[in-house]
Amino acid sequence: MEIKETGYCKTKKEVPSSPNNLLLFRQQANISQDRLAEAVDCSRRTIGYIEKGVHDPSVQMAYRISNYFKVALPVLFPDLNEKPDEQEGAHHET
Asked: Which domains occur in the chain, in start order?
């Protein structure tokens, strides 16, 4: 997959592979993409791309968004690459 890095996120050239919960949280909070974008210092377009899974937010952007909603980062942006037992805090063997 070809990735183009920008200041706030990475743009994917393929179909999104890892969904996130940003749209759900934004709708539950009843706020617009414009309002969220202003609150976290980015463009409305960036918020839309993140919601669709077209862009992966930078770590800083992801933290700003999770802080805005006052939720843990993995709640908004779950790591779907982990196995289910790893997400539950299972011990790793070395």
From this structure: 3-71 (1.10.260.40)
